[in-house]
Write the structure tokens for this entry.
Amino acid sequence: MVVLRPTDTNVQARRPPMSILIEKELPKRLETQRVGIGYTLDELSKRTSFSVETLRLFELPASEGGRLPMLHELNRLAWALGIDPMVLLDDKKKALDPKRLPARFRAQEGADLSPDDVRLLAMAAEVGRVTAFLWHQLGRGGRTLDISATRITDEHAGIQGAHLGAEARLTWDEPGQDVRGPILSLKGDLERRGVHVAWVPFSNPRVDGASVVEPKALPVILLNTKSKRILNPCSARMVMAHELCHLLHDGLDERKRTPLRSAITLAHDESQGSREEQRANAFAPAFLAPPRSVRAQAGDDLYSIARALVSRWGFTPEAAAWHARVIIGATKEEAQAAHRQLKSQPRGSNSQFTDDRPPRECSLASGLLSTLAQDAQRQGIISQGRLSELLRLQ
């Protein structure tokens, strides 16, 4: 057996020094990432404050008159392109992994995604990887989501969704929690299970939220601050529960049995065509307010159930009327009448759900990532500079 040392010629030939590899590959990586998002040089210039000419030089090899960005320039450029700068500097691979390129987000069914939205999803995927790294380095245990793929049965997707939502709630609550009552902080519960939840602005106000889960990453749920629904904690909770269904039941590539999902959720009335969306729409209310628990407290009267869903379970009048209809099997007309009656009544503040309101300062890092990053810095796992970089993510 021949033991090769780092100075051996064969080793050097097999793995070039980082400086040589980066000099050749970094310009290609930058251009590939930019084109995958859909940015022109002019658009990227506006995002980074680099001139178009400087950006053009970054994408040219040195042999053609280009220049490598300085480290601080690369940091600014990489995050503007939706990728961790450490990935761009990885000298173990000759090219970026195609599964990590932002182009995979460009063909979301039913969503008109701008380059900025594509970048945001790419950033969410990076955040999921960084959060997973910190989670494991800090030795965080506890229950995490069981990401899976559940085939939609021959029955109506909504019926299956309601069953799955009620079943998920049975195993969701922590010891000591009242399983018969509302989840007071869905965001907090998700974070304790390793899901990063962030309020961020998509350019498309029709997008309510998105969920991203990929290999070797923790799941990420994004809530769109430009969607009017998301500013209401009752609606935000419904969207979080909707995305939870996608993570639990649509989060695996069935052929490869590996997590690989990037799902866009449009506004409720525009997402009825997809059976996966119908299932998630039915999952959310059944998970937040299990029919058996609601009925045990509010009885069998449609209006009494709907009123309880608003006052105790944090539903909007519309969502309450339709969930009450499902619970007791009422007609569409009866649900519409209950909705009108609920709208005419004064509503409480639902102050018990304040944890599910958008934070004062919304950013991609706010939430689980920022908590883990600060803990990691205190324990010497990451530097103060890396912490500052992560907390500034937008």
Remarks:
- DSSP finds 17 helices and six strands in the chain.
- Confidence is low (pLDDT under 50) at residues 1-17, 267-271.
